[in-house]
Amino acid sequence: ETIASLENDLSFAKSQSQAASASAEERANVAEAKLDEVQQKAKKIVERVQAQAQQQVAAQVAEINQLKGEAAAAEQKMQALESSTATAERGIVEARQQAEASL
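Structure (tokenized):
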């Protein structure tokens, strides 16, 4: 009777062990599925952030190029003003010389 009792205990322990093993495997599968889901979400977030960063960089490059163009145009205007100022100064000097010569 003791052997039969031990065999029953052993059989019960085996079934409990198998059930626990199956339960642990199921929990591992659920955890793995959740991990995959989290990784996919993280990947999408990273892709979105990268796209936004690329758009911001492109916008900043465009703004820098526009500012460079404006600076070049301003430089040309400045040179034109310097040239016309020099021409006006020469004209004033010539007019003064003519006025003095006529006196």
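The CA atoms of residues 6 and 72 lie 96 Å apart. The mean pLDDT is 93.
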